[in-house]
Design brief:
Blueprint (H helix, E strand, L loop, with lengths): L4 E5 L4 H11 L3 E3 L1 E4 L5 E4 L6 E5 L5 H17 L4 E6 L18 H10 L4 E5 L18 E4 L2 H10 L7 E4 L5 H11 L2 E4 L1 E6 L2 E5 L10 E9 L3 H12 L4 E9 L3 H9 L6 E3 L7 E3 L2 H12 L2
Helix pairs in contact: 1-8, 4-5
Length: about 300
């Protein structure tokens, strides 16, 4: 008899979990969550499956990590033979070394924690800037780190992006994303240099010979939170003559106030992938995630 396969989601991303289940052609079940007055969580999961695909983005991660651990324990006890975590946004990946004495290597800690709970992982644009692969984080577990470029390419192609458009990334870490977007569209790509002095104190410089004069520009980044990196990059692009600006982010973590500022400063409304629920979501990830899950299930 074929194994029973199902997707399990959580209330804040019920739509995204449902779309993933639909793309895979399997049922979807949404966890029931209860928070006690002291902050503890209770997780209920119906319908045991042989293979459980748990979908949850780990923005605002601390409560979610505990709830995922509880969910994994329930699914194992109910008889799941394999558990896979689809976390479009994976937290704690940027702290991959000790930058100052007394700090943890959070990437290793979270990798070990979740690796004890799940048998495989699918993430989108995790912060693997000095880590070669996602499997280096979740050692011994099949893991797929997906690029968010595909949905952005499809949107730009559907919008009829002009051939003289320049794709801009604000720093070297965005270079793979820029290449993966500019290449399939036959567009020019360029990457800036970022100086960060604090979470909201950022300056982006673009090469002085950047071919931007009179041309539309699209700024892309994996995560948009305070927006300061994008605003600085946009100012640099305008100083070099960019005729217009659009913004795409894979993961949107910014507030409504920041969204209003994008519009007020002439960037238009940023568009993002839907891994993290946000008013800017316009680019569905379900087909991309489903393809990765199918690959893992055949390993």
């Amino acid at each position: 008899m074929a194994p029973r396969i199902g997707v399990y989601g959580f209330p804040e991303t019920a739509r995204q979990a449902g779309e993933l289940a639909h793309a895979l052609g399997v049922p979807c079940h949404i966890a029931e969550l209860h928070r006690f007055p002291d902050g503890e969580s209770l997780v209920r999961l119906p319908e045991p499956m042989d293979i459980a695909i748990v979908h949850r983005s780990l923005d605002q991660p601390n409560d979610k990590l505990v709830e995922l651990t509880l969910a994994a324990s329930v699914l194992r006890r109910q008889g799941a033979q394999r558990l896979y975590l689809v976390a479009p946004y994976m937290a704690y990946m940027r702290q991959d070394m000790v930058f100052k004495p007394g700090e943890p290597v959070s990437q290793t800690v979270i990798g070990d924690w979740l690796g004890r709970c799940f048998d495989g992982f699918v993430c989108v644009e995790p912060h693997l800037h000095r880590t070669p692969t996602l499997e280096s984080v979740f050692v011994g577990r099949p893991s797929v780190a997906l690029s968010g470029a595909g949905p952005i390419v499809e949107r730009l192609r559907g919008d009829g992006v002009s051939a003289d458009t320049v794709i801009i990334g604000p720093d070297e870490e965005s270079a793979p994303l820029v290449t993966a977007i500019a290449g399939p569209l036959g567009l020019t790509g360029l990457v800036g240099r970022k100086e960060r002095r604090g979470d909201r104190d950022v300056t982006v410089a673009l090469p002085a010979d950047s071919p931007l004069a009179g041309r539309p520009a699209v700024i892309v980044d994996d995560v948009i939170s305070s927006g300061e990196t994008i605003f600085s990059c946009g100012r640099a692009a305008r100083a070099l003559g960019a005729a217009s600006l659009r913004v795409f982010g894979v993961h949107a973590l910014f507030t409504d106030r920041i969204a209003d500022r994008f519009v007020a400063e002439g960037f238009g409304a940023p568009l993002s992938c839907d891994g993290v629920p946000h008013s800017s979501n316009a680019l569905p990830l379900a087909p991309l995630l489903a393809g990765a899950i199918r690959t893992i299930l055949t390993l």
